[in-house]
Each structure stands twice: as structure tokens, then as C-alpha cells.
């Protein structure tokens, strides 16, 4: 499930609206580096039940997380180049947390190392993100919270430099912790 525009999706920085949390150790700087791109936020994104959009999970889940992107991939026609730097493209995909997930589950980029995740709270998403906010708030991992006995959805997506097969790690913190890898065909088969 991908949209070609960020404007219809919506987002703002966590300091502005919503409840999305960032680690206090993150640098608030949004300066452009020598390559002309904004450095990604180094702290992971953490979303709570107040941040979720709701919705039913479609298809199968891996360790309690599911996404249409993992099953069907993302077509290159669904990419939107972020005009601020022209280097990243963003595609929207919801990630669902099913009742079978642990209380929190982390989704982390393994490959390519340049890929980033952008997920945010409901109000931010519905207000519409600017390209600068997506670039500034993107991170290498996001922790999502299970919310009761129903599946819940979190809004966001993946940023890549070019069509790629993106490998993500799903981590459930339990006893014992469990890891699974999923490959997401982002405009290119895996």
C-alpha cells in the first residue's frame, strides 16, 4: 500500500505535535552535510498506542508485525523523490502490530545501511509531513507498541537512495528474545 506523495500522508516533528518519542541523546541539528543531505536522526523512533492509526492487519505477520510491503513489494512508480536533496526516495507503507506481538517490537534496517525508516504519530501523519521533516526524523530503527487485543497500524515508510531489496530485522524482546529477517522489494526484486 504505497502513495506517491508525502503531502497526503502528513507528519510534523515530535516536538511539534503528537506523542512520538525520540531519545534525549539525539542531536537536534538539522544542518545539511557536505553531500547536501540532512543526516539521519541517530536515535530510534518509539511509538506508543496513542500514536497508532488503528486498522486491520492484512496477510501474514512475522513475530507479530505485518505489512503489505513485505508481501507484495513496492513498485518503482510509487516512489517520491524528496526534492530537498534529490538523493532519497520515500514510499509509504503501514506496519501492523498484531495481538500476537510482544508488548514492544523493534523493526531495524540491516541492508542497505543507507536505507532509513520514517514512522510517526497519528496527528503528525494526518497533518502532512514536509520533506524536511521526513529527512530529519528518519532513523535506522522504530519500536512499535502492541495495543490490546486488536491489530493496530502505524503510519510511515522506507527511504532509499534507489530501488533496492531492503532487509529488515524484527526483534521481539521476550524471554528469550527472537529475531526474524524480512526482505522488502522496494522497486527491485529481492
Describe the protein in words.
This protein has one domain (39-158, 169-186). The chain is built from 3 helices and 12 strands. The protein has helices at residues 68-72, 122-127, 131-137; strands at 21-22, 45-46, 65-66, 80-81, 89-92, 95-97, 104-111, 116-120, 141-145, 152-160, 164-172, 178-186. The strands form 2 sheets. The protein has a 6-stranded mixed sheet. Strands 3, 4, 5, 6, 8 and 10 form a 6-stranded antiparallel sheet that branches. Strand 4 and strand 5 (89-92) form a beta hairpin. The longest helix is centred in the C-terminal third of the chain and has 7 residues, at 131-137. The radius of gyration is 15 Å and the shape is globular. The two termini are 18 Å apart. The model is unreliable at 1-19 and 21-36 (pLDDT under 50).
In brief:
The protein is mainly β and 190 residues long.
Q: Count the beta strands.
A: 12
Strand content: 25-35%
Summarize the biggest pleated sheet.
Answer: 6 strands, mixed
- Number of domains as seen in the coordinates: 1
List low-pLDDT spans: 1-19, 21-36
Class based on secondary structure composition and strand pairing: mainly beta
Assembly category: single chain
Helix content: under 10%
What's the overall geometry? globular
**Alpha carbon gyration radius:** 15 Å
Helix and strand pattern: EEEHEEEEEHHEEEE
Major beta sheet, strand line-up: 1-2-9-7-11-12
Give the distance, in angstroms, between the N- and C-terminal Cα atoms. 18 Å
- Number of H/I helices: 3
Mean pLDDT: 76
Amino acid at each position: 500500500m504505497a502513495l506517491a506523495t508525502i503531502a497526503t500522508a502528513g507528519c510534523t516533528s515530535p516536538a511539534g505535535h503528537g506523542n512520538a518519542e525520540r531519545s534525549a541523546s539525539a542531536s537536534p541539528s538539522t544542518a545539511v552535510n557536505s553531500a547536501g543531505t540532512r543526516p539521519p536522526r541517530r536515535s530510534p523512533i518509539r511509538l506508543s498506542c496513542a500514536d497508532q492509526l488503528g486498522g486491520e492487519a492484512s496477510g501474514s505477520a512475522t513475530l507479530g508485525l505485518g505489512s503489505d510491503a513485505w508481501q507484495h513489494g513496492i513498485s518503482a512508480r510509487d516512489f517520491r523523490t524528496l526534492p530537498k536533496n534529490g538523493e532519497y526516495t520515500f514510499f509509504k507503507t503501514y506496519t501492523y502490530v498484531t495481538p500476537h506481538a510482544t508488548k514492544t517490537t523493534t523493526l531495524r534496517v540491516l541492508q542497505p545501511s543507507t536505507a532509513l525508516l520514517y514512522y510517526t504519530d497519528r496527528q503528525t501523519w494526518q497533518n502532512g509531513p514536509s520533506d524536511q521533516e521526513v529527512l530529519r526524523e528518519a532513523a535506522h530503527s522504530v519500536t512499535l507498541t502492541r495495543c490490546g487485543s486488536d491489530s493496530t497500524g502505524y503510519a510511515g515508510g522506507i527511504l532509499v537512495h534507489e530501488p533496492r531489496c531492503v532487509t529488515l530485522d524484527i526483534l521481539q524482546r521476550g524471554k528469550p528474545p527472537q529475531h526474524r529477517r524480512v526482505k522488502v522489494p522496494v522497486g527491485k526484486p529481492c
